[in-house]
Specification:
Keywords: Transcription
Number of domains: 4
CATH topology of the largest domain: Arc Repressor Mutant, subunit A
Radius of gyration: 30 Å
Number of strands: 10
GO biological process, one term: DNA-templated transcription initiation
Number of helices: 16
CATH superfamily of the largest domain: Winged helix-like DNA-binding domain superfamily/Winged helix DNA-binding domain
Helix content: 40-55%
Distance between the termini: 86 Å
Strand content: 5-15%
Order of helices and strands: HHHHHEHHEEHHHEEHEHHEEHHHEE
CATH architecture of the largest domain: Orthogonal Bundle
Protein name: RNA polymerase sigma factor
CATH class of the largest domain: Mainly Alpha
Largest sheet: 3 strands, antiparallel
GO molecular function: DNA-binding transcription factor activity
Pfam family, one: Sigma70_r4
């Protein structure tokens, strides 16, 4: 089979210079930027309708040479791949798949849109408010996907706290797919085309409005990073991680992170610029407050045990902890040498 570039050259070689220019510009075959009828009309000094007519005639002529260009083989390969995935695939993923199958990294979405437009199949769906661009076999598949997406939104809507959604192998997803009589691979492709679902930089998958999936504020991003890191981080490191993780292109500044975290009770300042999460067992307060809480929770403790437990909560020098522990107003040394709340 000819490669995609050669197929395009074969089906367009009989077009007039103007037809070829219009077709190539309309489908972005020259620079991967699709042009509108209005843009091409203004550039060529003709009406939008005239551009549409030239495009239609160019596509008709290209269609006459499609089968003898190996185009039908390309369509068969694309349809077979879509069938193996349940009939639908997000456009970005589909293009990557075709590059792999055809062993040609130069294949792009503009080329595929053009050739499959001529062939009339598979079916392309343009991005809108609800869906990303995708390719599918027919409208029946779209309806099936929409039904599954609606079920998934309801199913996962109340499971945010218990859900650690890692894709098709997550038990919750398996439960939903089995109940809906949908293949696991197909089910993931159905959800991937919907803007109601998204994946964060850590590959967690869930409803796109969940803060853990699509964190929009610096504070939300910091929370996700600390939650994944599992231990305290300096606010400068948190800012740097936000800027390199790939949330978005908007940079955040270290001082902004410090200002945001200091006023949110989910975060605890555990040392000089170091923040931890309350859900990881850290609690707010001064060194004295932490010592007091440790003794209340654990009862009388030997001096070294107090140092050890407080050090797990705060980045403090041992002398600082011992100095606070000697404050007789707040703590007392028992006869057996242990310490407790005064």
């Amino acid at each position: 089979m000819k490669n995609v570039g050669n197929i395009i050259e074969h089906v367009t070689h009989t077009l007039s210079a103007r037809q070829r220019e219009i077709v190539e510009e309309r489908f972005g075959l020259r620079d991967n930027q699709e042009k509108t009828l209005q843009e091409l009309g203004e550039r060529n000094g003709i009406t939008r309708e005239r551009v549409r007519q030239i495009e239609a005639e160019g596509l008709r002529l290209a269609r006459e040479h499609f089968k003898d260009s190996d185009g039908d083989q390309l369509v068969a390969i694309a349809k077979a791949h879509l069938t193996s995935l349940g009939g639908i695939r997000k456009e970005n993923d589909f293009v990557k798949d075709m590059q792999t199958i055809l062993k040609d990294d130069s294949v792009n979405q503009c080329q595929l849109r053009f050739l499959f437009k001529i062939a009339g199949e598979p079916m392309h769906y343009n991005e809108d408010d609800s869906f990303y661009s995708f390719w599918c076999l027919d409208k029946a598949i779209i309806k099936k996907a929409e039904t599954f997406i609606e079920k998934a939104v309801k199913f996962f809507g109340g499971k945010k706290e218990e859900l650690v959604f890692k894709g098709q192998f997550d038990p919750h997803f398996k439960q939903l797919a089995t109940a809906s009589n949908v293949d696991l691979v197909a089910g993931m492709d159905y959800l991937s085309i919907s803007k109601k679902f998204a994946t964060n930089p850590y590959s967690d998958f869930g409803l796109s409005h969940w803060e853990e999936i699509t964190p929009k504020t610096a504070r939300a991003k910091a929370y996700l990073i600390l939650r994944k890191h599992g231990k305290p981080m300096h606010f400068r490191d948190i800012a740097g991680t936000i800027n390199t993780t790939g949330f978005d292109k908007k940079p955040v500044y270290a001082q902004t992170i410090h200002n945001e975290l200091i006023k949110d009770n989910r975060f605890v300042l555990v040392g000089r610029g170091m923040y931890g999460l309350t859900e990881h067992g850290f609690f707010p307060g001064t060194a004295k407050d932490v010592i007091r809480q440790v003794l209340i929770d654990n009862g009388p403790l030997a001096q070294q045990n107090v140092v050890q437990m407080v050090s797990s909560q705060r980045f403090l020098k041992e002398n600082t902890i011992l100095l606070n522990l000697q404050n007789k107003k707040h703590f007392k040394r028992l006869e057996d040498g242990t310490y407790h709340v005064a």
